[in-house]
């Protein structure tokens, strides 16, 4: 392969950079002190390494050790442990609400998801995958970085409520082969993964992994509301998922390939399709490739980063409207990015970057299997070009400012400007105060702007984009080496919200520019670690979100409370991870308030029974709590019941 041939010719002197990075990455995070955990470098905030004190955001990090300790299976489950995040599930996709904003069926268009800095959000729906449709296995992540607030000054499109950057493991971190298998009886869910990674003698770092999942799901009762139908959806909840990940790196070069293929059967009759009809499903296939170069010059005062990327997303939906209909979509994108980071000017880190993305295909289709004469094709393409700069200015020994701006141009809304301003004060060696301002934008996606079938939706080619402005005050305080406290007060204002309305001419649904949305919130969190390898993390979030006219927002809990405790047990080398989450009441479409709920999960794992062997038992929804999430405008149901108690047995072996 071309990249392997290139790897053989990489300069040997650059290997020292990779060796130091990999030695830090392969450290056992379970053995690090809380102070060391807080010093794990963050790369997703500014596209270069920063400490948590330097990041212009209330950043959070979820380590691989935490993913294992709590038995999280999907990205939304892990993110739900963080302050200000609530999740929803509609039996098709997982959705993430951030700081009170999470409209039902929103497809995560205002949250940017990246894998090693490579954008995963597709160019048709702008969707940031958080559930099973995420095209990488959670076991392959070294850490999850969540940077809340506008990230438009660095990333542009979609980074409105935050950036989720997934940092993958290296071959040196795996250092051998891993086999895992898991079974979840209630859903008849079978999972498997095989991974191999190594740093070879010639300095080439290689990681290859394949994963698969099959689940029959549950037979659950559904009421289809206005359809006048209700009943048990038997055999209509199955799930299929396959993933492949490959990474090759040497010296300053790295190449990554990500592939994910997921199909979820639909028991809900989504998009008002015929209830209780077998064979209805939604499917997503992602293919992402990225070639990166990063090296330092001029006595390590200049860092050059460059990358080429290519993405492919295929969506397919099979629904029944008196007969089978198919609604496929094809999105292809490619592009390049170049960044320069200079520290030559004392007291300054200057970042300059340019990024171009060509959306080669943004095609949407409607196919009538019974009468091809009704078929519809909407063929589009587009582009995005961005120039950005940032200065991390050390004003004094205790005062730092971050000044950034990005200028973007696209074929839909023209030119947009996204600034970032931050003042970070190291008030004492243990206390950091951050004052933050940011703005981000989102152009309407191809689905919102262009899709029209004359039945379910009409297009709105004049649809304008939306923007958000956020002001935030963050205080971080360390009490000794084992306890950290954080408080955050924020307000944000979302202008020209793109929302589903009614076209006055046709009377059909149409995406339109809606009301302004305003919010105020408070987040308090604490993280305590003990020398006995016990860690307790908790948070409380109060969030008040409403339209400018005073109406409350759908699916917006005012109170969130989180508690995560991991500790060793004096039996068979067991380690326990207990999670408690409380979500306050949420408003649903018909105006009723769905009750708040407390959800407990427990995970028990051990690696002490045999060398290389790992066993775990996860108990999800420990107390079998019955609770619901609001449905969207495309559901028959006003609310969707969530899963009860389930068990997951997992076996892993390393050699």
Structure description:
This protein is mainly beta and 655 residues long. It has a single domain, classed as TonB-dependent receptor, beta-barrel domain (Maltoporin, Chain A). The protein has eight helices and 39 strands. The protein has a 24-stranded antiparallel beta sheet that branches. A five-stranded mixed beta sheet has the order 1-6-7-4-5. Strands 2-3 form a two-stranded antiparallel sheet. The longest helix is centred in the N-terminal third of the chain and has 11 residues, at 15-25. Keywords: Cell outer membrane, Membrane, Receptor, Signal, TonB box, Transmembrane, Transmembrane beta strand, Transport.
Map the helices and strands.
Layout lengths: L1 H7 L6 H11 L8 H5 L21 E4 H7 L4 H5 L5 E5 L4 E5 L13 E4 L2 E2 L21 E8 L3 H4 L6 E7 L2 H4 L1 E9 L4 E11 L5 E11 L4 E4 L6 E4 L5 E12 L2 E13 L15 E17 L4 E19 L3 E3 L2 E14 L5 E21 L7 E3 L3 E13 L4 E12 L3 E15 L2 E12 L3 H5 L15 E14 L3 E13 L2 E5 L6 E5 L3 E13 L5 E13 L11 E10 L5 E10 L2 E2 L5 E2 L2 E10 L6 E8 L7 E3 L8 E3 L4 E9 L1
Parallel strand pairs: 4-7
Antiparallel strand pairs: 1-6, 2-3, 4-5, 6-7, 8-9, 8-39, 9-10, 10-13, 11-12, 13-14, 14-15, 15-16, 16-17, 16-18, 17-19, 18-19, 19-20, 19-21, 21-22, 22-23, 23-24, 24-25, 25-26, 26-29, 27-28, 29-30, 30-31, 31-32, 32-35, 33-34, 35-36, 36-39, 37-38
InterPro entries: Beta-barrel_TonB, Beta-barrel_TonB_sf, Plug_dom, Plug_dom_sf, TonB-dep_rcpt-like
Subcellular location: Cell outer membrane
Protein name: TonB-dependent receptor plug domain-containing protein
